[in-house]
Amino acid sequence: MAKRSPTQKSAPQPPAKKAAAKAPPVRGPTKAVGKTKKKPVRLECDFRAFNALQDGASAHVFFKGADAPEHGAVIEIAATDDPGSETLKCRVLQITEAGTPPLPPDVGVVTVAFVPPEQIGSRLFKTLHGHLLQLQASFVRSAAHKLPGSKGRLREMAVSDFLASWMPKRYSPLTNSFLSHDSAGVLNNEIDLVLYDSHAGPQWPLDAENSNWFLAWDHVKVVLEVKSTLDAEEWGKATRNMDEIERFAGKADTNCPPRILFAYRVDDAFRDEFESNLLASQPFDLIVVLQGQAFASPNDIKLISAFETGLSPEQARNDQRAVEADLRDFIGLGSQSFRRLANKSEHALMAMIYWCTNACAGSDMTRSLLSALGRSGEVRPLFADDGSSCSTEALAKPNEPKKHTKEFVEMQSDFDPDNPFADEG
Fold first, then answer.
1. What radius of gyration, in Å, describes the C-alpha atoms of the chain?
2. What distances in angstroms separate CA 424 from CA 96, 224, 230, one per listed residue?
3. Do 90 and 72 touch, CB atoms closer than 8 A?
4. 309 within 8 A of 268, measured Cβ to Cβ
5. Residue 254 pLDDT > 90, yes or no?
6. Region 390-395: what's the mean pLDDT?
């Protein structure tokens, strides 16, 4: 191999690029580039469109040109002239750009639809949806058993397992229990399911499988009746058992624990009678139907208001919306009628978890629960700490529609109802 000449050895090489000088360290907090969170678009619509969104329909909402949202984006919709009101999370379905005839040059329209929390919100709510599917699967799978008693036990265990996943570990869901009290004696009626303070009270198993129990009455937090199919016969059994619970509490000179009726389904032939029964006083604090219904006794009006507004019961006592809702329900439904809490299966289960959590762990934990489920609300106080009124306008005119701004009325009058998506929703 030929040797390199000295000139070749010493031939100057092109100078390497110098490494960029390191920037001096920056002291103090720095802002990450490209990670700023965009503020969600917030638009306003009139009360009719807002109510339509709450009822599950789509609605048309005006926007200024600079506020144009993106197609498919989730935006916040508020009621007109009420900047402090709660907003609805809605998804943009269609957009009519600003200035499209017959719209004004700087005004556009979006068609939006309400997005359920399980689709955009809490991961825990999605877990709740999974538990719903498990309960439904248990109902179907247990139908393979020939003996009715076997079906009932399996379905009770499914509800027990569900509550065990959501309650603090201190409170055990126990099936097929008999209760005793030092002065009231023994309640011989077998209780399908109870939530029991296992840290404070003894629990005596009646069989080797730990499926039947003798329990101390003083440590029972919630009593539940579990029904596969609720018909006239099963309704009669459940009401008699819950009446006996109330009598036993009177003999023991204690408060009666919350009484919950849980049913996987309501028999079609019993549905009309079931709904008429809810117009009168019944020995239940909460009725939950897995098909997607939950009804609460009017005796728990503050708990109802708290659940509906996403607050704790203490916060609901001084919340403007909660007081308004109480007043409307009292006038519209009367003092005896049960209040409907849910029209969806997940929300019905959420109501049961909420009632049980309040009975076992207290009201502070209920607010944490709703927050984790993506349902927490902001308090709008009716009275200040010194007792003075914060706002009396809503109470004075609770059902009066909001007044529209002149600008909004003009937009409405200019908008063509025959636009391409006027028939949506």
1. 30
2. 14, 43, 38
3. no
4. no
5. yes
6. 45
Are residue 67 and residue 148 in the same domain, yes or no? no
**Same domain? 79 vs 135:** no
Asked if 84 and 219 sit in the same domain, the reply is no
Q: Is residue 102 part of a domain?
A: yes
Q: Is the pLDDT of residue 178 over 60?
A: yes
Report residue 72 as tokens: 């498919």
Report d(CA 416, CA 101) in Å as an integer. 9
pTM: 0.64
Output the pLDDT for position 255.
Answer: 93
CA distances from 370 to 124, 312, 351, 384 (A): 10, 9, 10, 25
Unique residue bearing structure tokens 């200019």: 414
pLDDT tens per residue across span 71-110: 778 888 888 866 556 788 888 888 888 888 888 888 889 9
The boundaries of the domain holding residue 131 are: 123-372
Question: Which of 116, 150, 175 is the C-terminal boundary of a domain?
Answer: 116
- pLDDT value at position 17? 52
Report whether pLDDT(304) > 90.
no
- Examine the domain organization and report whether 65 and 172 are in the same domain: no
Whether 56 and 184 share a structural domain: no
pLDDT for 31: 45
Residue with tokens 């708290």: 306
- 335, with CB counted inside 10 A (0-12, 13-18, 19+), is exposed
Q: How many CB atoms lie within 10 A of CB 66?
A: 7
